[in-house]
Amino acid sequence: xxxxxxxxxxxxxxxxxxxxxxxxxxxxxxxxxxxxxxxxxxxxxxxxxxxxxxxxxxxxxxxxxxxxxxxxxxxxxxxxxxxxxxxxxxxxxxxxxxxxxxxxxxxxxxxxxxxxxxxxxxxxxxxxxxxxxxxxxxxxxxxxxxxxxxxxxxxxxxxxxxxxxxxxxxxxxxxxxxxxxxxxxxxxxxxxxxxxxxxxxxxxxxxxxxxxxxxxxxxxxxxxxxxxxxxxxxxxxxxxxxxxxxxxxxxxxxxxxxxxxxxxxxxxxxxxxxxxxxxxxxxxxxxxxxxxxxxxxxxxxxxxxxxxxxxxxxxxxxxxxx
Length: 322
Prior knowledge:
globular, HAMP domain-containing histidine kinase, kinase
């Protein structure tokens, strides 16, 4: 940041006359009478010295903050481009294959033209579909399903980036009212019930009584949903996910425990970083945004989140002030 300058008549220790020298505001104040000169001249009160130092520190702090924000913006743009590159590239490939399959030349080939061609995505890797039936109907259907999957991933990424930007720039208004945490948790569990039933996973709520806490049911519900969605995604079939709600003198707690793949040692804090994915996730699909959004939402509620490794699985707790 360019420092403000001004033109002053200035004087040396021997009253030598300097005219029309352009100097920084800080230097001008130090030299210009009656404020005094450098090297501890008695004309310069200690209070003014202190104010100048504070002003200089404020300017340096703002410059450092601007540099950090610029670097974070560049990093975020690079991360967004990286996350979107794969689904966009897949859509391009599937579209080309679909156009080729529908072309007259391809239709004339018996058995279809996409045998063994990668046309579906699962967990970030391309799977090969079986040979198309005459007319290529199976290959065409595979291409369409793959295009739909890529479109869903792009929509999810776009919506997540919008939420992330709104959270970081404090554009989201958290409307906290004294509401039931039990009801918020039950509503979030209903959103993942279908997926859980497909894997024969039971979701149980443990709460001795109805717990009330100041929160925004919509936004906190989304945080709880993200935790439950992760638990269902990374848990094996025929397991149980437990939601515990309790309250003490300082905090209300929502604790979600599963018997899934868990995390490695020293990953308890890392999993809440943007785009971070645990070492145990393997080829499971995901982008590393869910837990980051959970943390940001809970922080806007004045609370915090904590992950705890289990012998088998993981527990994540949301703490809200009471």
